[in-house]
Amino acid sequence: MSSLDNTTSVDEVFTRLVVQYKDKPINQDTIKACALINQALDLRKKWLFKKCTEDWEEKKPLPEIENLSEVEFVSNNGVIYPATRSKGSIFQPIQTINEFIHDLLCIQCCISTGPVKTYTYYRLKLLDVKFRLHTLLNRDAEKRANQLDSKDWDKIMKVDTHVHLASAMTRKHLIDFMMKKFETSKDEVVFSQNGNTETLSQVFERLTLNGEHLSIDALDVFAGAATFQRFDQFNSKYNPFGNTDLRSIFLKTENYTDGKYFAEITKELFEKMETDTRLQATEYRVSIYGAKRTEWDSLAKWITKHKVKSAHNRFLVQIPRIYNIYKASGHVSNFQQVLDNIFLPLFEATKDPTSHPELALFLEDVSGFDTVDDESRLEEKLSESSPPPALWQNAESPCYAYYCYYLWANLTYLNRFRELRRLNVFEFRPHCGESGEVDNLCVGFLLAKGINHGINLQKSIPLEYLYYVAQIGLAVSPLSNNRLFLDYKRNPFPIFFERGLNVSLSTDDPLQFHYTQNPLVEEYVIAAKRWGFTETDLNEIARNSVLQSGFSHAEKVKWLGPDYYKEGTKGNKMNFSNLPNMRIAFRYENWIDEINFLETLKKECKNQESPMILIPHVRPTNKLTSSYNPVQHNFTRILIVPPKTTVLQDPEYSEAKKLILKGLNLRTKYQLLMNNADPYQDENITRFLCDINFHKYIADYLQQFQVSSNSFALFANSHEFRFVNGVINIFRGKEVFCSYCEDHLGCIQCDECKDCKDDVKNGVNGESTNERPSGIFCAECDRVLHRKPSLRTHMRNHFVVDQPLFKIPDIDEFLNDLVDLRKAVHYGPVSTFCHQRLEILETKYDCYMLMNDDHERHETKTVIAKDPIIRVDTHVHISSGMVASHLLNFMKNKLKHNSNDVVLKDGAQEITLGRLFEKVGLNENQISIDSLAVQADFSTFQRFDKFKAHYAPFGNSEIQQIFLRRTNDQNGKYLAELTKEVFKKNEKLGQYTEFRISIYGRTSSDWQYCAWWITHYGIFSPFNRWVVQIPRLYHVYKEAGEVNNFQQFLDNLFLPLFEASKHPEKYVEINVFLSCCSSFDIADDEGQVERFLVTGNVTTPDKWNTAENPPYVYYSYYIYMNLIQLNRYRKLKGLNTFDFRPHSGASGDVDHLNASFLFAENISHGLNLIKSPSLQYLYYLTQIGITVSPASEDSLYVPYNQNPLRTYFKRGLQISLSSDNPLQIHRTSEPLSEEYAVASQMWKLSENEICELCRNSVLISGFSPEQKQKWIGKNYKKLGPEGNDILKTKISDTRMCFRQETLENELLFLDDLVQ
Fold this sequence. Notes:
Elements: H1 10-13, E1 16-20, E2 25-26, H2 28-47, E3 72-76, E4 79-84, E5 88-89, H3 97-111, H4 114-148, E6 158-164, H5 171-184, E7 189-193, E8 196-199, H6 200-206, H7 216-219, H8 231-235, H9 244-251, H10 260-275, E9 280-287, H11 295-305, E10 313-320, H12 323-329, H13 335-351, H14 357-363, E11 366-372, H15 400-420, E12 427-428, E13 431-432, H16 439-447, E14 450-453, H17 461-470, E15 473-476, H18 478-484, H19 493-499, E16 503-505, H20 510-513, H21 519-531, H22 535-548, H23 553-560, H24 574-577, H25 581-605, E17 613-614, E18 637-641, H26 651-671, H27 683-705, H28 709-714, E19 720-724, E20 727-731, E21 748-750, H29 757-761, E22 775-777, H30 779-785, H31 789-792, E23 797-798, H32 811-826, H33 828-860, E24 872-877, H34 884-897, E25 902-906, E26 909-912, H35 913-919, H36 929-932, H37 944-949, H38 957-964, H39 973-989, E27 992-998, H40 1006-1017, E28 1024-1031, H41 1034-1039, H42 1046-1062, H43 1068-1075, E29 1077-1083, H44 1112-1132, E30 1139-1140, E31 1143-1144, H45 1151-1159, E32 1162-1165, H46 1173-1182, E33 1185-1188, H47 1190-1196, ...
Parallel strand pairs: 6-9, 9-10, 10-11, 11-12, 13-14, 14-15, 15-16, 24-27, 27-28, 28-29, 29-30, 31-32, 32-33, 33-34
Antiparallel strand pairs: 1-18, 2-17, 3-4, 4-5, 7-8, 19-20, 21-22, 21-23, 25-26
């Protein structure tokens, strides 16, 4: 263990992600995609201008220009280059526009190719999830690293690489400046028109403005709703008070005062920036239009005359693409003149600085060139038929690609010439991808060093990937985009950042977009708040801005450190950038992994004709190892490589792990109370749980609660049942005979005799005995049997008749355990830890799917299942198990053929079915699904009372009683017939179900009547198991006078079951019914307000005699404990036992899920788990089954698209789908198939994911182990591929291996932390 300091190596604290590519076949599409991407990257290298010598490299000798005075500037097809009369061009010719058109078409073809789209989509998504996984694993370490450094975000340099000088001030700054000038310089002549001059006050008077009118709102420069998607409207916002004269006076360099006011306000911007404690720099954009040859000298003169210069600023020259305006005004006659006006002065100033001295001085502060205008404007495509610039005499402006090529071509020659003259060179960083055609981004990819905006990259996944691999800088302005082209919430900046694109934040036009007096900080703050950026994220964005900028090498060294240009962690100095090395290492290793993957595939695929090849193991250049050795299975993994040295954990963090284990121990305690060991619990999970110090609980509770089954069997029919504090206890009968001689009454109990079978086997005198003595002896037999030394040490007790056979925790002990569990799951560090682990699980699954989706399909596509894939509808209610159309047709059939059936008896009066429908105004021809009125709609959302009302067809309770109830004057005949029709349909479809049938506890005859109803009508099917549902309606029965207290309710529920189990021959119908039951459930509206139970002050069931309904945990305890006793007894009698699978977590108090965690084998709904990361994590570790019904829940609890099912599934919880209430919810005749179809479409589930949900439904169900072996494989209890029979499940072994490794690693992770 070591603490973290600023000398700690990144390898000691950085949890790495290593993609482990296993050798596997790659299809031809991937080969083609990689080949095209490599070709595109090569094309960029071909076109991108590269300096002869980088600033940090040793200077290479450059040739001298002979006879500089003879150098002339030749314009040929739109490209200006230096040449001499004797030797011609002094440089090798650059690529022609036809080459550009060809290569641009290659890029466009590349990004439109299907294989490239697929490949880049998966690679970008992989980068997404790797970043999420990195932050989950390293966020705390990054935060500690930031805290230990002397720097913070305020003290590192941030460059605003995209801001227009004419709108660089804020509205308040501009209005304050105008008011100041109105007060101090009102008599200064500032404007001239038609030979007439005006002072500032006269201009304001002409515009009917005075000091009172000078307000921010009246200024009217803010870009509001009217500018969205309207670039023309936006341009008008540059005019203060909507007036072009004021714009000319205050925001132009060429006017009557030679741009005096514009210079003054710009210098105020410089002064504020230089004195701001938050380090900032800018690259202000100034415009050169190309309308006149004198523009450069005029701009340079304005710069030098007014000393508009700052060490914190570089200028970027933007070329507006408005040739059409110059053409229309007569300033130029063709496009060549525009190019001449832009570039010839630059070539002249480069050749002879004295010819343009002010321009030569100004160019030292210029970092690059830009081209700008409305990209959304419709324009012709660039083609080989496009005329050269000298012949471009159209009234329309050339297209974006045409502009960019000629700017790039002239800039390339200019840069080469300036390099030979030992002068600074310029980058090409155009506006690109703000709106309009995606093709513009193809142009930027070939020609630009970096671009501004680039938000249209989200429309082209392949281009986004190319920009990532090429690490092209993107200066994004989300607040600007929000007002012009794209809502803030839809801005792709956070996605670009997470994926590792080289992005920075910029302001664009503070005058139009920003509120605060520090626009760049405003951009960062809003982005951090809206997208949840951490300090490390902001530092990375700031560092990107410096690297993207055109500031000199010396300045970047000052801001980022001497090695900033080096790759990876070698180029990062944290005391400069405040960026932890682990973030730099993560970004670099990701990028190297992509490059290596492409390069390796390129080499391996060269000259390959085979459609299938093998990809070797590809790693980042760093040598990384993992201590974890996974099960060898052929799929691509992401390995989490822990730090070399474990960083000292927060004590709260360690305490959280202990509390999680305590919660697991508590569940183990209550699950072990069920003497009938769970036949469906995976033995591997049990082994891991036991490894984590669970053996103590197992040993203690087995010893405390178990008794000898042999001794019990001898007097199994002599016991008595009595309720003790609400739980049935089993007592020995008053006459128990000696288990050895069987003549005398037993009086001494010894449970240890079963351990000495060989000694006792031959009897007292050596004679053979048929029965093994076990437990209860008379005094004589006890003396004889225990006289041997080996038996004399046995502990023996006086046999007490009135002593319960089994001990269980009382309700106070349960409530104390529940309090401990509550404290654990609500403890802040536990919630934080569990939330992080769940996020990691989800992200690991995303990684797995991105890397192995194709592999899964390939693994299962050739599998021909021997039988149909089995799925079980584990949660469906009998009274709504049919769909509405089925019920309607059944009713119509009964009205047609059985209208004379007597369905109601009112005293002596008998009412037939036909008469009843006449009474309510209905007949066979009038009824429809709509009039049936059973389908849930918007009115039932969050209204359980209204949902229950939809159980009544036509809103009539009498019709509901006749058709959908067991207790009526027909003894439930119609419901029996309906249910049998549903069973018959399911058998034809091969659909298995677990119908829930209610036992209410109103009377002690409920069980007998229910069993009679099922056996009398023969409602059995090999495709169905019954789940007994106990509605939590005690308060209803109490108010109706049907029960006196809660104890009577429990008596009615459980005493008949014990009696039927004791005397199966007397209660044949009940036992036949119970043999078809799998589980018990409790159900009702969980959203009701409940009493909070306090230990030591709990009302016992016999005293709970008010009409108040007991809370959920009270019901859970008494139902579960009585079920334990029933299961123990039935198991020893050789009868089937039952699981506890309650409705839990659909709504209401999350505490319901705490009780279910302790008691339940599986649960239904579980929606509220999403509110408690701690509980959700515990449910994952214990693999408690959760049956979710999204369509039903959409009508009651949560909109379908917000249902947490997909999240649970990705995180590895054991989830299945069910129909719940087909009558109210479903439209088709196959409700469960409808559930799967909707879920598949909504969440784009793969075939393997659907099959996994099906397998989970079988595991969760209460069907027998023999049936489960038949359906999903003989080893289904085991984890991983060993427990998967792919011929039965059609789930790839790869998926099963992933699930196994993930769960086992999580359990081992907990164990390691505690150790």
